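Thread: quick sanity check before group meeting

JM: Hey all, I'm pulling together slides for Thursday and realized we never actually wrote out the predicted structure for the chain we discussed last week. Dropping the sequence here so it's in one place. If anyone has concerns about the input, flag it before I start.
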Amino acid sequence: MAKYGILVISHGSRSEEWVRLVDEAVAAVELPVDVPICSSFLEIVEGRLIQDGIDMLEADGVTDLIVVPLFVSSGSTHVDEIRYALGVQAAPSLPTDLAPFRVQAKVHLASPIDDDPLIAGIVLEKLKGLSRDPARELLVLVGHGSAEEGFYERWRLGLERLAERVRQAGGFAAADTALLLPNELPELLARWRRERPELEAIVAPLFLSEGYFTERVIPERLQGSVHRYAGRALLPHPDISRWIERQVRTIFSYEQVRGYGGKTSKVNL
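JM (edit): ok, ran it. Output follows.
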């Protein structure tokens, strides 16, 4: 009989606060009581890496491993190398130091965030207090991005679709997107200033948690432009937990588990 377990993978950080926010979001995921869940990290967080999570879940008897990549874009090169290391794809698209994982369970890989409606709602909520008159405002959504062919295009597609969701939900006059890699933000704001000077630019970051990019890189690249900046990342927000639940449900129906009534499983962290 199959036993499901959930492995949530995020990048990792030296910031204890960054790790804490991810762990709290994972701990708030509601699952059947006998379905274990584990928060793991691609790098940096020693003792909490992906192989540690796999080992912990398999030691708990998991035969079917649902992997949820807590990354904001399918254009992330990290998502590609994780797919390879899990055995989901035969080879990485780019050279990687990530070796294949030891995994006995059957792997079921969910999708990253991209343009999920729940995430659009979080972005819009984080703009409260900054947006004053959406009908006269330009929403600019900023993501990390990638200079690699193919990955850049996936980053841009997901970001554009998400920005349009936020624009429609918030009633903004227009929406656009900029990636930090390559550096698109200064020219984009300058172009909008030339072509639509009546619109006020509202700049919002699309990052999982606040840190170096939201607090330093984006503000530096905004210098000299006319804008209002919402430096708030996706976490903390309860809908990150709901998003994880929804990704799990694309693979595993909770209702098939006897006795499920919205109960929370034990959490292995």
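AS: nice. Strands lie at 4-10, 37-41, 64-69, 106-109, 137-145, 174-181, 200-205, 228-229, 267-268. The mean pLDDT is 92.
JM: adding both to the slides.
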